[in-house]
Design brief:
Length: 251
Amino acid sequence: MIEDPQGTILALFAAFCRIGACIMVLPGFSSFRVPVQIRLLLAVAVSMALLPVMWDTIYPRVQGGGSGYILLIGAEMLIGVTMGLIARYIVLALQFAGTGISMAIGFNSAPGGGIIENEPEGHVTSLITFTALFVLFLSDFHHLVIAALVRSYTFMPLGSGFDPQMALMTLTDTLAGAFLLVLRLASPFLAYGLIFNLSIGMVNKLSPQIPVYFISIPFILFGGLVLFYFGSRSFFTLFVAGFEPLYLGLP
């Protein structure tokens, strides 16, 4: 029998605010294709599973409730959103790389409906983002996020409030690291596009009467797709390997 039902509910709701806010913006779970009810039930289930582990950390700080509990809930939601945005920024950086790769290899078709988000995006970008997210789930990145949520109570303890400076520095460092990671991943395609277009420009100078644009597009597109076919395994392997250091570097 629960000795303090009110304190237990308050502790569960405090854990739910941080975990639920993280899941709300976490890539994959926050997709418009995942029903809101599924996200809500998932956040409740994870909160109930983690509450016994963090009982000694959460319960003493929520006893009695009061007006301070409202401020605590607001701070917990901000902390959860910050942790979810760290993973989301890494995936958004990958979408940026997909757009750059599409332009480099000449795949500039009209954007279609997104697979994960409800926004139009290029076909190469959709393929890269969906495959990377699929590989992340296969490598249990959601377990990594749950472990980071548990660990967050050590450097962002319950009741200590929300530190906007630390959150801003963390998100800024994540953006910088994610940009450098995807720049390294997309560098072969960028170099390929630069060298190919430079060569075509020199050919156009030698023979101005040739319609170089219509002749070069099939060749640059074919070469880019061949390069993506043979380099996709290393591309996604290096991205998954770089995701964990970026996410675990949050404190």
